[in-house]
Amino acid sequence: MWSRWQADRGVFFNSYLVDGADGAFAVDPLETDDPAVLRALEAAAVKTIVVTNRDHERASAAFAAALGARVIASEPDAASLVRTPDAIVRDGEVMFGWRVIVLDGYKTPGEMVLVNESTRTAISGDAFWGDPAGSLRLMPDAKLADPVRALRSARRVQECNLLHLFVGDGMPAIGTAHALLGAMLDADRRGSLASVDGA
């Protein structure tokens, strides 16, 4: 993980290098002055960069050029990226052992979460904010396309029974993801609606 402090929001923005048995990839790469980041991606032979939503394109084009990597985005967000992605993924597809969950009701139509079921780990972009530390929340309602649909969609992630959730904004939830997602849903007055209506 490499991060950048956002003073206006009081949180860190995060990017990730995932290096597993099925291959290595980077998620939502931020610009950085630390040469160790690029060296780590090169050492892991990263040839794929995943953009979790159209607002997390960040420095993906620069990293793709430096690494000779392809950029992947979800189908609904692909056309909104500044750099046309090299490939798209759809809800339910699996890449590098991570299942794609495309969420509904969020700021962008293609907000997605990556879930590794064998390790009970997920990576999100803007879907969940680890703020304040030790908790999870959705972004403010004003930024969501539909807060109720977003809650219903978030329940799909909570039902994965995760241990770990690495977020794009704020502090990751290590070993506590399932409980924190449940607390987030239960605390929202619309949480009962999300559970009754399913989806």
Determine the CATH topology: Metallo-beta-lactamase, Chain A
Quick one: CATH superfamily?
Ribonuclease Z/Hydroxyacylglutathione hydrolase-like
Q: Which stretches are poorly predicted, pLDDT < 50 over at least 5 residues?
A: 193-199
Q: Strand portion, in percent?
A: 25-35%
* Major sheet strand order: 1-2-3-4-5-6
Our Rg estimate from Cα atoms comes to 16 Å
Distance between the termini: 32 Å
The total of helices stands at 6
Number of strands: 13
The H-and-E topology, N to C, reads as EEEHEHEHEEEEEEHEEHH
**Would you state the CATH class?**
Alpha Beta
Estimate the mean pLDDT confidence.
94
Count the domains: 1
* Percent helix range: 25-40%
Bulk shape? globular
Summarize the structure.
The strands form three sheets. Strands 1-2-3-4-5-6 form a six-stranded mixed beta sheet. A five-stranded mixed beta sheet has the order 7-8-9-10-12, with no helix packed on it. Strands 11-13 form a two-stranded parallel ribbon. The protein is of the alpha/beta class. The relative contact order is 0.14.
